[in-house]
Amino acid sequence: MTTILIIDDDDQLRKSFARLLTKEGHEVLTAASGEAGVGLFAAQEVDLVILDVRLPGMSGLETFKAIHASDHRVPVIIMTAYGTTETAIEATKMGAFDFVLKPFEVPEMLNTISQALEAARFMRSTVSVDGEPGAANTDAIIGRSAAMQKVYKAIGRVAATDATVLVRGESGTGKELAARAIYQHSLRSDRPFLVINCVAIPDTLLESELFGYERGAFTGATHRRVGKIEQASGGTIFLDEIGDMPLNLQAKMLRLLQEKSVERLGGREAIPVDVRIIAATNRDLETLITQGQFREDLYYRLKVITIWLPPLAERKEDIALLSEHFLVHYARALGVDHPGIEAAALSALQQRPWPGNVRELANTLQKALIFNRGTPIGVDAIAQAAGEDPPLSGQNHAPVTTEEAIRQWVREQLLRQAKGNLFEACMDHFAGLLITEALNITGGNRSRAAKLLGVSRPTLHAKIEKFDLKFETSVKGDT
User: Fold this and answer.
1) Which residue from 9, 76, 178, 412 has the fewest beta carbons nearer than 10 Å?
2) Alpha-carbon separation of residue 74 from 69, 95, 96, 124, 470 (angstroms)
3) Shared domain check, 215 and 298
4) Are both 304 and 319 inside the same structural domain?
5) Does a structural domain hold residue 475?
6) Are 322 and 172 contacting, i.e. CB atoms less than 8 angstroms apart?
7) Are 262 and 152 within one domain?
8) What are the residue boundaries of the Sigma-54 factor interaction domain, all occurrences included (predicted)?
9) Contacts (Cβ under 8 Å, ≥6 apart) of 261
10) Each residue of 227-243: pLDDT tens digit?
């Protein structure tokens, strides 16, 4: 469960926030002054701070400075009235995650909160490189093949530098995990790490998201807004799917890499920034260059260091380790015993082509674990999870529908567990499955998954945290 600290002297606003965010699955702490808020922040672990600019005694900006000095990695959302936007902008330039004008629309505020919590998770959730399979509370890059050893060495060599890094590889190979590992082992690990997905944000919004804008730059621009690059100064920006960045923005990105400065939309001032760029793509950039869809000069600026993540088909000796990791992880998340996997099933996994790479392997094993009946996972279970007909084994197997399989699983749970809150355990189990499949269908895009499920994005995020569900995704739409 995530913990959110609200610092505002408006009693009604604090109470309303507490009710709303508690309903969304968060733990809420409140303070009526900056001094009290700083005290709470020091005494408890907090994932996000929502801070009003105008406070009695210690000002909002002073409160922000105190919180930020204690831990740069905790996002702070500034709330401000129209008359105090300059103070909020100043705080954003100093590293606040965002500022929200009062009065605000609740859905927009919830979306900003969800984005901030996601950023906090990326900064705080450890990525284990060549970790032990199934290690708790970490995301892990698993594999001991020669190809993966090259990846680990590259991450180790580049992490301590400020060099621009281009992470390349097919979809599902773990590019986001590699980027986070570089950040967490870098000299900037105590500074912001912001993720921008270049394909998930509409072209019309991506420029203002990255570079910000000046008041009057376009219709509706009623105030200056600081872009993510300027906001993350001193930290790291991860540009996912950069091969899909529009050409007009590629020119501005080139200027950032060459001159270490940005220019807000509608502005004329070059603003110096100190930010490290890590970019990733599964696109063939060389082909895009020949087609006039990607700038050659930007390509060479990005590929100061290139890290290639091998497809699973080229590191099949890692499948046994990966399988153990995912089975331990999903068994823990689903609250079931780890049944093990038969040698024949493991051999079948090693013979598959895996066009979806590690992500596809993880999804297959999760499905096999869910529909397995407590015995070691066999070849038939793998085939069923992969959506294939099971191999002929000389026995007549009656076709089993999804509903029949679920009914059988429920019966087994009822017979196995005579006491305890079985109803809640089963509901949690299927909630985890429902969320997982929604994310699989949407390619890990949490906004689309939330819409598909008919819940708010913060509610979805809270459930993911509750069930400790982790996915190797491209963070599509999560920025």
Assistant:
1) 412
2) 10, 10, 9, 9, 21
3) yes
4) no
5) no
6) no
7) yes
8) 141-370
9) 255, 270, 271, 272, 273
10) 999 988 899 999 999 99
Which residue has 């529908």 as its token pair?
401
CB 128 within 8 A of CB 185: no
Both tokens assigned to 16: 């309303």
Q: Is residue 133 in a domain?
A: no
Least Cα distance to 78 among 70, 63, 242, 263 occurs for: 63
237: its two tokens: 């920006």
Check whether residue 321 and residue 297 sit in a common domain.
no
Residue at token pair 């969800």: 114
> Is the pLDDT score of 395 beyond 50?
no
- Check which CATH number belongs to the domain holding 197 and give it: 3.40.50.300
Range of the domain at 410: 314-467
At which residue do the structure tokens 């300059």 appear?
86
In this structure, are residues 333 and 196 in contact, taking their beta carbons and an 8 Å threshold?
Answer: no
95-144 pLDDT, tens digit per residue, is 899 888 888 888 889 989 998 998 888 888 778 886 666 665 558 899 99
The verdict on residue 473 lying in a domain is: no
Q: Both tokens of residue 260?
A: 């270490």
User: For residue 221, is it within any domain?
Assistant: yes
Q: 0.85 cut: is pTM over it?
A: no
Domain end marker among 91, 124, 157 = 124
In the predicted model, is pLDDT for residue 21 greater than 50? yes
Same domain for 173 and 197: yes
- Type of residue at 228: K
Integer CA distances (angstroms), 224 to 65, 78, 85, 92, 261, in order: 21, 14, 8, 11, 17
Tally of domains in the chain? 3
| Residue 265 scores a pLDDT above 70 | yes
CA distance 266 to 391: 63
